[in-house]
Amino acid sequence: MYRRFHPSLLAFAIYLTGSTVDAAELVNNVFLAVWQKRDKLELDEKLKSYLFTAVKNRSTNFHKRAKMNVVELQPHNKESSFRADLPLEEKEIENMLQSILSTLPPKCKQVFVMSRFDGLKNKEIAHLLDISIKTVENQMTKALKIFKEKMKLT
Questions:
Q1: 93 with 111: CB under 8 angstroms?
Q2: Into which CATH architecture does domain 99-154 fall?
């Protein structure tokens, strides 16, 4: 399992973290966690998705921890763009999008997230998931169609 998935997981983690050292540690931690949970996990066709999702989640946590160390102060002479209702609108839109996202089929959802949230190109997604570019395009078309239909209903 390590030999099969490590190269593509490492490439994915390097892309997400921007650091070879951090990516290697992150991927090794994912494999360690899988090893520790080996009795509870089903090692079936969902394993690849599980590993990529675990790497993505750990990468997100890595970035959150890194951001906590940086504090940006807004200059006093700059006009604020604060709107009291903006967080509520953003939260409502985010909830609606997450709701629609949760209805997507697993493979379609994974391709959509990698494209729209992670900013990967179709060729990169195809390489990371070991699928054809045409399959990526089909999954994206399917996801966008579902989003369009469900957005019309709300």
A1: no
A2: Orthogonal Bundle (1.10)
How many Å apart are CA 2 and CA 30, to the nearest integer? 10
Give the closest residue to 27 by CA, choosing from 45, 46, 6, 48.
6
Under CATH, which number does the domain 1-67 receive? 1.10.1740
**89 pLDDT more than 80:** no
Task: List C-alpha distances in Å: 71 to 58, 64, 68, 108.
Answer: 22, 12, 7, 37
Q: What percentage of residues in the chain have a pLDDT greater than 90?
A: 21
State the Cα torsion 52-32-36-2 to the nearest 10°: 70
**Would you say residue 108 has pLDDT above 80?**
yes
Domain ranges of the chain: 1-67, 99-154
pLDDT score at 76 = 53
pLDDT of residue 134: 96
